[in-house]
Recover the amino acids of this structure.
C-alpha cells in the first residue's frame, strides 16, 4: 500500500476542489445557454423575409414557454387548415419588432377577413373558444409535469 502524508492529502484535496469548481462552472454555463437562446435579439428582419403574404403571423415576445405550451394552437391550426406562422422575437422589444408587429396586424386583418368568407363570420370566436379549452387541458398536463420534476 502507498503511504499517505499531509502533502498527498493536500494534493488530493486540491484536485478534488478543482474538479468541483469545474463542474460548478459547467453547470452554470449549461443553465445559461437556454436563457440566452430564448432571448436572441432582433429576429424581426429574418421573420420578415420568411413569411408569405396571407398567413396568420403570430409574434411572441418574451421567454419561450415550457415544452408543450403551443400544442393546443398547433393542433387547432391543423384541424382548421389555417396558414399559421409563429415568430419568436426574444425578450427585447425593438423599434423594428414594433414595426413588424403593426405590419403583421394589418396582414392578419386581411387574412382573417378572407377566412370569414371561407369559414363564416364567427370563425375566430369559435377558434378562440376551442383554443381556450385545449390550452386549459395542456396547461394542466404541463403543470403536473413541472410539479413532478420539482418533487
Amino acid at each position: 500500500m502507498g503511504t499517505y502524508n499531509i502533502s498527498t492529502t493536500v494534493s488530493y484535496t486540491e484536485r478534488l476542489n478543482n474538479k468541483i469548481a469545474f463542474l460548478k462552472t459547467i453547470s452554470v454555463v449549461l443553465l445559461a445557454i437556454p436563457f440566452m437562446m430564448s432571448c436572441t435579439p432582433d429576429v424581426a428582419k429574418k421573420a420578415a423575409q420568411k413569411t408569405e403574404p396571407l398567413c396568420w403571423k403570430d409574434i411572441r415576445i418574451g421567454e419561450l414557454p415550457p415544452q408543450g405550451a403551443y400544442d393546443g394552437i398547433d393542433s387547432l391550426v391543423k384541424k382548421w387548415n389555417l396558414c399559421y406562422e409563429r415568430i419568436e422575437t426574444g425578450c427585447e422589444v425593438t423599434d423594428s419588432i414594433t414595426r413588424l408587429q403593426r405590419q403583421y396586424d394589418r396582414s392578419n386583418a386581411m387574412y382573417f377577413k378572407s377566412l370569414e368568407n371561407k369559414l363564416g363570420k364567427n370563425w375566430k370566436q369559435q377558434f378562440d373558444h376551442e383554443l381556450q379549452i385545449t390550452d386549459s387541458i395542456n396547461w394542466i398536463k404541463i403543470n403536473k409535469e413541472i410539479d413532478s420534476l420539482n418533487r
User: Anything to note?
Assistant: Residues 6-38 form the longest helix (33 residues). The first strand starts at residue 56 and ends at 61.
